[in-house]
Design a protein that fits this description.
Largest sheet: 8 strands, parallel, barrel
CATH topology of the largest domain: TIM Barrel
CATH class of the largest domain: Alpha Beta
Radius of gyration: 24 Å
Oligomer: single chain
Number of domains: 2
Shape: globular
Length: 449
């Protein structure tokens, strides 16, 4: 096997212009160099890393007249802004018979279907989160929907199956592929209380399996997620999923919530436990894992940015590629509108810098575009200053400077539509300059003399 350093050496030999065969060889080696350097920055990824957002409030925000702006101050569709910041997946919660309260209601079957179609049209992936309630279901609230409250247990099973099937079948008929379906939301103490409490695992197991069966009846390829809170608490997860195994519960993926804010400590004190828990449960139960909810204080954008990158990194490091991705719970839910402090949207209607964390790809590049023309000059360079030519692009651009062994040396974000000077301070050698724009990545070799 040719080593990376051999490729670099060969790719930079002076070749006579008239020697066409050598020119072809040099072009090939040049491409190999770009590929090798860029892919050294990534863990071998078998699929796109999930970078998601739960956006259940969005339709009501729009209906109330809320206007979204990108970082340049241009009014745009919120989904476009999220996509420009690296979001590739939408998580949509669905309630059974919700109220019309703009914050604590809506998310009906019809409204979820409309939002799912928008997601599909934007080229985004879709997860449906079944709360099996008329409003919030979480560790402290798992109320049976009002229409099911007088059910006996067999009727409750039938209602759960029918509701799950109808929602997913409607999306299927609309041409939306549901890649993941969450059967219950933060169910560490069970769901549909009291019948589905963890104090009655035989019934909880039956309810979970009924949901699984409904999901697979619509599309056998849809992955079923079981979701618990406090993703840093290994004991909590072992207790639940050991019981699930003992009661023969069927599922595909373990979903985790991780909110340092609600733990009352900085993420640096618990993100290691999150990573250790994901490593443990992925091996113990032989399941893929996904952080399906996280978020940070909107007033501490840098801290939230750092937390998100740390969570994505821990997820990507789960052995055997079993860490699938990370989702933010209501990034667009600006505090003055929602009253929720863990969004990443400012009072000016623009996303905060925290959202830029989703431009970071812990698995490396999504694509390497070898045909696109160079986006910087001069090359070769003296290593002090480059000029970035971003005039033909739109939206946010992330520029990364990589060493020949794949080490990230610098990372900067810029708005496109201009030529931008970039100070470097690089020593003589070979580097890779990586451009990420709207999820596509171009990588170019830079020679510093």
């Amino acid at each position: 096997m040719v080593s990376l350093h051999c490729v670099i050496l060969l790719a930079n030999q002076e070749v006579p212009v008239a020697d066409q065969s050598n020119n072809a060889l040099k072009k090939l080696l040049h491409t190999l160099l770009l590929t090798a350097v860029c892919f050294l920055f990534m863990n071998a990824a078998k699929a796109q890393f999930i970078k998601g957002a739960d956006i259940g409030w969005l339709p009501q925000m729009e209906a109330s007249g809320y206007i979204f702006y990108d970082s340049t101050g241009t009014q745009r569709d919120c989904l476009e802004i999220l996509k420009d910041h690296g979001i590739n997946t939408l998580r949509l919660r669905v309630w059974v018979e919700p109220s019309n309260d703009r914050v604590n209601g809506h998310c009906s079957k019809k409204e979820v279907a409309a939002l799912a179609v928008r997601a599909k049209n934007m080229g985004m992936r879709v997860m449906v989160d079944f709360h099996y309630s008329d409003t919030w279901a979480d560790p402290g609230h798992q109320a049976i929907p009002s229409a099911w409250v007088n059910d006996n247990f067999n009727q409750l099973l039938d209602h759960l199956y029918l509701h799950t099937f109808q929602v997913l079948d409607t999306l299927k008929l609309l041409g939306v592929r549901t890649e993941w379906a969450q059967v219950g939301n933060e169910i560490s103490s069970g769901m549909l209380w009291p019948e589905g409490s963890t104090s009655n695992w035989s019934q909880l197991g039956a309810l979970l399996n009924k949901g699984y069966e409904a999901v697979k009846a619509v599309d056998s390829s849809t992955k079923v997620v079981l979701h618990l809170d406090q993703g840093n608490d290994n004991y909590r997860f072992r207790a639940f999923f050991d019981s699930a195994e003992n009661h023969h519960v069927k599922y595909d993926i373990i979903g985790l919530s991780y909110y340092p804010y609600w733990l009352g400590t900085d993420y640096t004190l618990s993100v290691g436990d999150l990573g250790s828990n994901m490593d443990d449960i992925s091996e113990r139960y032989n399941k893929e894992v996904m952080v399906v909810e996280t978020g940070g204080n909107h007033l501490l954008a840098q801290n939230t940015y750092d937390m998100l990158k740390a969570v994505m990194k821990k997820t990507a490091e789960v052995p055997n590629g079993k860490g699938l991705g990370v989702m933010y719970w209501e990034p667009e839910g600006e505090a003055a509108w929602s009253g929720y402090p863990l969004n990443c949207w400012g009072p000016d209607g623009k996303p905060t810098s925290a959202l830029n964390a989703f431009l970071f790809n812990p698995l490396g590049v999504k694509t390497i575009n070898s045909e696109q023309e160079d986006f910087f000059y001069p090359n070769p360079s003296d290593g002090k200053l480059l000029h970035l030519d971003l005039k033909k692009l739109s939206g946010l651009c992330v520029i990364r400077v990589l060493s020949v062994n794949g080490m990230l040396l610098a990372e900067n974000s810029f708005e496109s539509n201009s030529t931008i000077p970039l100070s470097l301070g690089l020593k003589p050698g070979i580097y890779a300059i990586q451009l990420n724009n709207k999820g596509n990545t171009t990588c170019r070799k830079l020679i510093v003399r």
